[in-house]
User: What shape does this take?
Amino acid sequence: MFIKSNFLNFSSLFFQAFKQLRRIYLNSPIYNKKISKIDDKTIIYKPNQNIFSCLIKFERKKYNIEDFSLNSVWKNSHNLHSKNFRKLHNFFWLFTLDLRSSKKITQNVIYNWISENYNYKQHIWDLDILSKRIIAWISNSKLTYESADAEYKFHFNSLIKKQTNHLINEIKSSKKLDDKMIGSTAIILVGLSYGDSYYLRFGIDLLKQLLNFSLDSSNFPKSRNLRQLVFYLKYLIVIRELLKESQTNIPEFLDEIIFYLGKSYNLLCANKKKGILFNGNFEDSSEEFDNYINFYKYKFKDDANETGGYVLLKNKKTYLAIDIGRAPEKKFSKDYQAGLFSFEFNFLGEKVITNSGYFQDHKHRLNIISKSSATHSTLVIDDTSVVKFERDKLGSTIINKNFKILSKEIKSQEDFYMIRASHDAYSKSHGIIHERKINFFHNKFKLEGCDRIIKTKNFKSSNFAIRFHLLPEVNLTKLLNNETILIESKNSGWKFRCKNHKIDIEMGLYFGIKNKYLENKNIIITGITNQEEQAINWEISRV
Assistant: This one.
């Protein structure tokens, strides 16, 4: 124990010393000279700004730059909150400007920024901020570049390439996959805009390496994170459209991955007012991206009901979504939520049963709560999750234990869906196998569920709870028979029934809105496991 403790202390000191030396090097004249090796190439390809519209989450209203007071903006930016600081320095706010804005004022703002930040500065040159800044400057060239004098263009072009050189030096060592995707896009854009084959080739190769690393054999994110699925698809389509518009060959791997990611998006995310709440996802309408895809004529096939460990069974009025996938590898698990066999049930665009959602801030105690099995519509033994979590060096909560899916069966017929699966997550700790079966009858609008608790050799008596989470606005009423609870949502009414087991209403927390929480109500079935195999039957039917 003593040796281990000393080793950890030494490792921590070594890591801190390395970070300090690296910081000194990045701020040195030697490094500045290294990344300042540039050529005299100017912009030859100016992308259509609309290609980037799927990446922008600002109000539709356009602003005139003349309406802002920007004289001392860069000198005072260090006083801003971190989030606003990043937004200011990534220049994505350029996309909100009316094209009738003054080019002179816009270019003066950029020139002043260049004067203040021409050499590397920590945070301002962070990969995600820097990558977005390159994208914003080039793709808004009608304001940032056109009609400028030769001196301004020289400094603009020089700093684009200087930042890109820094990006190339740093990006391979980054552990942040989303940042690497944005960075690849920025490098490819620089290569296309300046007709530079080195930047273009490097960006394409980097993109290919990233996708090979982070996607599984079926081209689904290894993280099983639905936000990452959408994020990747957006950036890959943007890259493809840039290549297409600039009349550059489109790599085969890019078309292939867009095809498979698109199929998964079509099944799990498309045409939804609120996203399904599994593994890092939160409420987010797909409408804008659906429109973007349609505008650029991307049509993805809808010929499967399972992808990435998720099953989604649907008809014109309803869908049933279930997580039956394994937890990801440790290195891809920072946004994993232990919602094994949890489900969401949607009727006419309104969720009848949901999960609690994800609290994204890894430093907040609610993050680990939102990851727990108890915040999902599934069975929990002794209030323990199906995986164990630990903190990594960056403060993210990752898993250190996985489980096996023991069986899986899916049936989809004209008027009937059935899914059945089992797992061993509680086998070693409690001697229990959990099997869940759900039948859904289209015509009757009725779910029939059965959670079986199957004893193994390590069995020990335990408490169990099966939760059914609801949206905050849903009202619940328990009837006097103690086996029925009425569910009253905005547009429909439902009846939950469970005989022979205790059912109740409990208060809970809902994290479906990004980094917010609201109180909600849950239906809960409780009991104690015994020596016999137990079958907990429940039913949800429309009133």
